Amino acid sequence: MRALFSKPLISYVIGILLVITTTGFVLSQVIENFFILIAVLLIEFIIFLLFLLHFYDKYMKPIKKATKTVDEIVKGNYRARFHHPVNDTIGQLSKRINALARNLSELSIQEQMQSEQLSTVIDNTESGLILIDSKGYIHLVNRKIIDMFGGTPKDYRGYLYYDVLENEVIHEAVQKAFLYEKNIKYAFTNYKNKDKFYLEIVGAPIFNERNMLKGAVLVIYDITEMKKLELMRKDFVANVSHELKTPITSIKGFAETLMETPLTDGGTHNEFLSIIYNESHRLQLLIEDLLILSKLEKEDFKLDLEEIDAEQLMEDISPLIKHQAQEKGIHLALNIQEVNTFEADKERVKQVIINLLDNAFNYTPKGGNVSLSIGSKEEQFYIQVKDTGIGIEQEALPRIFERFYRVDKARSRNTGGTGLGLAIVKHIVEVHHGDIKIESEQDTGTTITVFLPQDNPL
Ligand SMILES: Nc1ncnc2c1ncn2[C@@H]1O[C@H](COP(=O)(O)OP(=O)(O)O)[C@@H](O)[C@H]1O
Ligand SMILES: [Mg+2]
């Protein structure tokens, strides 16, 4: 009964009462008996009331429920549903509302997924991204920008770009992108914790559907690695030219003197010729080493892997190295420990051993000891060359694998060193996915151990 007096229904009840009063007034002209009149009006009232209750239950209540459900959906609660058991018009309406809610829910999940994917992509790109609107306010910065310039996203979002980004080059990129409405590219350097970074910025204007400037995207690339490689390459070219220049100048000088020296002076002739021979030999060694390095660095370089027998390898190289040791007056010990075979590129492994022994012989005074051990330890095959030579100072240790780095330039040259031996060793070990360990003490000796995976995963 309470439902009858709820707001919309009370007006219907008042309406019914008005109709009854009117019929009562009309009927009172015809029916004289007051009780019969009251009874008729009462029956009329009850019939109207029953109609009204039926009408309320069948239409008004479900529509109210439907309105509530739609309100929930409008608020964003896509899980709201409206159930109506009868398959009439309201039943159809309930089905449509539920379908709408389901669709919206799917759409919102999709949208959420897409926006999550987009923000994951933006956050994980290797380049820094900044989105600026046409007034210069920053709307978005990704993680890389935070890495490059520090702070948190909150320190950037909602601020004017020139208030939070200090670099003048960035300001210029934005201004030019806005002014010329085309992509602008600049390079600049940035310091973070005293480290120098080389960066490149591309400012790209963005337009709306009516081709009006909406803002700009700034993409900042970290080109430090590339710059370092470029510098290394430049250094390398300079070094190579320098290394080539010395023997060539000397060859040319001695040849010129030779031409001016009368043939009768046989002693000078022979002396100069042998100098020319030695210098050209040095040139040959240098060019050979350079060729080895460039071959190793080629992109399509492939190791020629094979099963190598340790004993056989030792036998192959021992005549050469024994001869070298004898010539230099050095005691050479060869050991093979717990290894039968291993997988590697045989010629390259020989090169590693020869380069390491070369150094051991060259930097160990006469009468010293050098040992070469081949063995295996924890699934790794190792080559160890140990000498009792001049050793290497601790500060120089990290640099000896660099191309052309020599602790003592004159000594290296005198022994026919090119400064590339260890760079080649390092390269060969790297392409085998191996490792190098070095221990050295000045005036005591040096031990270099090369580890290679026994079953190469390549
Ligand atoms: N066994 C060693 N004992 C002392 N110094 C060494 C030894 N091996 C390498 N070095 C130092 O490392 C430098 C680089 O070696 P390497 O690349 O083979 O060039 P190099 O042609 O000069 O031998 C050498 O010039 C030398 O100063
Ligand atoms: Mg060497």
TrEMBL record:
<keyword id="KW-0547">Nucleotide-binding</keyword>
<keyword id="KW-1003">Cell membrane</keyword>
<dbReference type="Pfam" id="PF00512">
    <property type="entry name" value="HisKA"/>
</dbReference>
<dbReference type="InterPro" id="IPR004358">
    <property type="entry name" value="Sig_transdc_His_kin-like_C"/>
</dbReference>
<dbReference type="InterPro" id="IPR003660">
    <property type="entry name" value="HAMP_dom"/>
</dbReference>
<dbReference type="InterPro" id="IPR005467">
    <property type="entry name" value="His_kinase_dom"/>
</dbReference>
<protein>
    <recommendedName>
        <fullName>histidine kinase</fullName>
        <ecNumber>2.7.13.3</ecNumber>
    </recommendedName>
</protein>
<keyword id="KW-0808">Transferase</keyword>
<feature type="domain" description="Histidine kinase">
    <location>
        <begin position="239"/>
        <end position="456"/>
    </location>
</feature>
<dbReference type="InterPro" id="IPR000700">
    <property type="entry name" value="PAS-assoc_C"/>
</dbReference>
<dbReference type="Pfam" id="PF02518">
    <property type="entry name" value="HATPase_c"/>
</dbReference>
<keyword id="KW-0902">Two-component regulatory system</keyword>
<dbReference type="Pfam" id="PF13426">
    <property type="entry name" value="PAS_9"/>
</dbReference>
<feature type="transmembrane region" description="Helical">
    <location>
        <begin position="9"/>
        <end position="28"/>
    </location>
</feature>
<dbReference type="InterPro" id="IPR000014">
    <property type="entry name" value="PAS"/>
</dbReference>
<feature type="transmembrane region" description="Helical">
    <location>
        <begin position="34"/>
        <end position="56"/>
    </location>
</feature>
<keyword id="KW-0812">Transmembrane</keyword>
<feature type="domain" description="HAMP">
    <location>
        <begin position="57"/>
        <end position="109"/>
    </location>
</feature>
<keyword id="KW-0472">Membrane</keyword>
<keyword id="KW-0067">ATP-binding</keyword>
<keyword id="KW-1133">Transmembrane helix</keyword>
<keyword id="KW-0597">Phosphoprotein</keyword>
<dbReference type="InterPro" id="IPR003661">
    <property type="entry name" value="HisK_dim/P_dom"/>
</dbReference>
<dbReference type="InterPro" id="IPR003594">
    <property type="entry name" value="HATPase_dom"/>
</dbReference>
<dbReference type="InterPro" id="IPR050351">
    <property type="entry name" value="BphY/WalK/GraS-like"/>
</dbReference>
<dbReference type="InterPro" id="IPR036890">
    <property type="entry name" value="HATPase_C_sf"/>
</dbReference>
<dbReference type="InterPro" id="IPR035965">
    <property type="entry name" value="PAS-like_dom_sf"/>
</dbReference>
<feature type="domain" description="PAC">
    <location>
        <begin position="182"/>
        <end position="235"/>
    </location>
</feature>
<feature type="domain" description="PAS">
    <location>
        <begin position="114"/>
        <end position="158"/>
    </location>
</feature>
<dbReference type="InterPro" id="IPR036097">
    <property type="entry name" value="HisK_dim/P_sf"/>
</dbReference>
<dbReference type="Pfam" id="PF00672">
    <property type="entry name" value="HAMP"/>
</dbReference>
<keyword id="KW-0418">Kinase</keyword>
